[in-house]
Write a structure and sequence with these properties.
The protein has helices at about 1-5, 15-25, 30-55, 60-90, 90-100, 115-125, 130-145, 155-195. With about 200 residues, the chain is mainly α. Belongs to the fatty acid desaturase type 2 family.
């Protein structure tokens, strides 16, 4: 109810970028919205699918498979629209995609206890940085051929360089998170084993 009452702005997390856009007379519009839902629908598909697997309940798993399949259809629709934007206005679309990727939050980010629940989901393999990078961002960018396109202006090339630098850092962050999670899970397993003996 809180989330539905507050609504969601895909650029809310990017306060600095949103201020810069206002100063330049730009608006968050269709390109930002379509870029956001492309990644958000795919992220939701991944997390629903992984939740189904983690349930250990065949009925819940089957239901969540169905929901995940619907999320995938939504993602394909938005990805195709955004891909058309990339063909029509490559620089502007890449700018919107980069704004969204570098400031991405799930729509529930403003909900009470969202951060705590997000940590639990990441800890238990429902949705984490590695999945976000490898199963959400990378496939979409590959589909749009972002790093092999030749139709960007120098401004677009700079935006692509910014995106590449962000993805490089995200790769490092994902690896660091996985190492920390593995150590924490090993400690918890050792504690359980010690208690059992």
């Amino acid at each position: 109810m809180i989330h539905m009452t507050n609504g969601y702005d895909p650029m809310l997390a990017a306060a600095d970028r949103a201020d810069e856009m206002k100063a330049n007379g730009e608006e968050v519009g269709l390109l930002h919205s379509v870029a956001y839902v492309t990644f958000q629908e795919l992220a939701t598909r991944v997390s629903h699918r992984n939740t189904g697997k983690a349930c250990n309940d065949p009925i819940a798993d089957k239901m969540l498979q169905r929901i995940a399949a619907d999320e995938n259809l939504h993602m394909i629709f938005y990805r195709n629209i955004c891909g058309a934007g990339m063909d029509i206005a490559p620089d502007q679309t890449l700018r919107a995609v980069t704004d969204i990727v570098t400031n991405f939050q799930m729509p529930g980010a403003g909900m009470p206890n969202f951060r705590r629940h997000g940590v639990l989901m990441a800890k238990h393999g429902i949705y984490d940085l590695r999945q976000h990078l490898d199963e959400v961002i990378a496939p979409v960018l590959r589909k749009w051929n972002i790093f092999d396109r030749t139709d960007f202006t120098p401004d677009g090339e700079k935006t692509r360089d910014d995106l590449a630098a962000f993805l490089e850092q995200l790769e490092k962050d994902a690896t660091r998170f996985e190492e920390m999670r593995d150590r924490a899970l090993a400690r918890e397993a050792a504690k359980r084993e010690k208690k059992a003996s």
